[in-house]
Amino acid sequence: MEIVINDDENVERALRRFKRMVLKAGILADVRKHQRYEKPSERRKREREQAARNSRRRSGTRA
Protein backbone atom coordinates (compact mmCIF):
# COMPACT_ATOMS: atom_id res chain seq x y z
CA MET A 1 0.00 0.00 0.00
CA GLU A 2 1.24 3.41 -0.84
CA ILE A 3 -0.17 6.84 -0.10
CA VAL A 4 1.13 9.96 -1.78
CA ILE A 5 0.77 13.00 0.47
CA ASN A 6 -0.04 16.14 -1.46
CA ASP A 7 1.54 19.47 -0.52
CA ASP A 8 -1.72 20.91 0.79
CA GLU A 9 -2.71 17.75 2.73
CA ASN A 10 -1.99 17.22 6.41
CA VAL A 11 -0.70 13.94 7.82
CA GLU A 12 -3.89 13.09 9.73
CA ARG A 13 -5.95 13.20 6.56
CA ALA A 14 -3.42 11.04 4.72
CA LEU A 15 -3.46 8.55 7.60
CA ARG A 16 -7.26 8.31 7.43
CA ARG A 17 -6.99 7.73 3.68
CA PHE A 18 -4.41 5.00 4.27
CA LYS A 19 -6.58 3.29 6.89
CA ARG A 20 -9.55 3.34 4.50
CA MET A 21 -7.44 1.78 1.74
CA VAL A 22 -6.19 -0.98 4.07
CA LEU A 23 -9.73 -1.69 5.22
CA LYS A 24 -11.10 -1.86 1.67
CA ALA A 25 -8.25 -4.12 0.53
CA GLY A 26 -9.02 -6.56 3.36
CA ILE A 27 -5.45 -6.64 4.62
CA LEU A 28 -6.38 -6.55 8.33
CA ALA A 29 -8.93 -9.32 7.92
CA ASP A 30 -6.31 -11.44 6.19
CA VAL A 31 -3.75 -10.81 8.94
CA ARG A 32 -6.26 -11.73 11.64
CA LYS A 33 -7.17 -14.90 9.74
CA HIS A 34 -3.53 -15.99 9.61
CA GLN A 35 -2.63 -15.15 13.22
CA ARG A 36 -3.04 -18.73 14.31
CA TYR A 37 -3.30 -22.12 12.62
CA GLU A 38 -6.81 -23.26 11.81
CA LYS A 39 -7.38 -26.97 11.42
CA PRO A 40 -9.13 -28.00 8.19
CA SER A 41 -12.11 -29.29 10.19
CA GLU A 42 -12.42 -25.92 11.95
CA ARG A 43 -12.22 -24.13 8.60
CA ARG A 44 -14.98 -26.30 7.12
CA LYS A 45 -17.15 -25.73 10.20
CA ARG A 46 -16.63 -21.94 10.00
CA GLU A 47 -17.42 -21.92 6.28
CA ARG A 48 -20.57 -24.02 6.85
CA GLU A 49 -21.77 -21.63 9.56
CA GLN A 50 -21.06 -18.63 7.31
CA ALA A 51 -23.00 -20.23 4.46
CA ALA A 52 -25.95 -20.84 6.80
CA ARG A 53 -25.86 -17.20 7.96
CA ASN A 54 -25.75 -16.00 4.36
CA SER A 55 -28.64 -18.27 3.44
CA ARG A 56 -30.77 -16.99 6.32
CA ARG A 57 -29.88 -13.42 5.42
CA ARG A 58 -30.94 -13.93 1.80
CA SER A 59 -34.19 -15.63 2.75
CA GLY A 60 -35.08 -12.84 5.19
CA THR A 61 -35.63 -15.02 8.27
CA ARG A 62 -33.73 -14.82 11.51
CA ALA A 63 -32.81 -17.68 13.79
From TrEMBL:
<feature type="region of interest" description="Disordered">
    <location>
        <begin position="32"/>
        <end position="63"/>
    </location>
</feature>
<dbReference type="InterPro" id="IPR018278">
    <property type="entry name" value="Ribosomal_bS21_CS"/>
</dbReference>
<dbReference type="GO" id="GO:1990904">
    <property type="term" value="C:ribonucleoprotein complex"/>
</dbReference>
<dbReference type="Pfam" id="PF01165">
    <property type="entry name" value="Ribosomal_S21"/>
</dbReference>
<dbReference type="InterPro" id="IPR001911">
    <property type="entry name" value="Ribosomal_bS21"/>
</dbReference>
<feature type="compositionally biased region" description="Basic residues">
    <location>
        <begin position="54"/>
        <end position="63"/>
    </location>
</feature>
<dbReference type="InterPro" id="IPR038380">
    <property type="entry name" value="Ribosomal_bS21_sf"/>
</dbReference>
<comment type="similarity">
    <text>Belongs to the bacterial ribosomal protein bS21 family.</text>
</comment>
<dbReference type="GO" id="GO:0006412">
    <property type="term" value="P:translation"/>
</dbReference>
<dbReference type="GO" id="GO:0003735">
    <property type="term" value="F:structural constituent of ribosome"/>
</dbReference>
<keyword id="KW-0687">Ribonucleoprotein</keyword>
<keyword id="KW-0689">Ribosomal protein</keyword>
<dbReference type="GO" id="GO:0005840">
    <property type="term" value="C:ribosome"/>
</dbReference>
<protein>
    <recommendedName>
        <fullName>Small ribosomal subunit protein bS21</fullName>
    </recommendedName>
</protein>
